Amino acid sequence: MAAGPNEPKSRYLQYLEVVTGSLEEKRRYRQYKARVKRLPENYRTAVEALERYLMHFGPADGAGAMSMYEDLADLFEQSVADGTPIRDIFGADPVEFVEAFMANYPAGQYRARERNRFTSAIQRAAGEDTGQDGTDR
């Protein structure tokens, strides 16, 4: 039922993706979860805690989020292979670590648009010229 890389998708698959989201993103997410499941328990616990945080504050779009999660799995798999202690990964402040980690990924279209809208509104309220035509309301 799945179309190959060079085959056009059937109307059914196109409709299914409209309703459920990208099938490719779902496949990537399942692969990521399988990688996390293979980590030692303490590393897996740390990744799952990071994942919860990222679900709330990380990139909102599927592609950006999946790249971030795959990089997270890479980081922890390499840390396990190198024998890096969890505290050495995170440092003294886990929130500082995750915020720096997230800064490497796009915020997602919705969040970026809302951040820009918020910043523009504050600039207008402060009487600063935003250089925009005011259509961001």
Automatic annotation (TrEMBL):
Recorded superkingdom: Bacteria
Alphabetically ordered keywords of this record: DNA-binding
InterPro entries the record matches: UCP029876 (IPR008316)
A molecular function GO annotation: DNA binding
Name of this chain's protein: DNA-binding ferritin-like protein (Dps family)
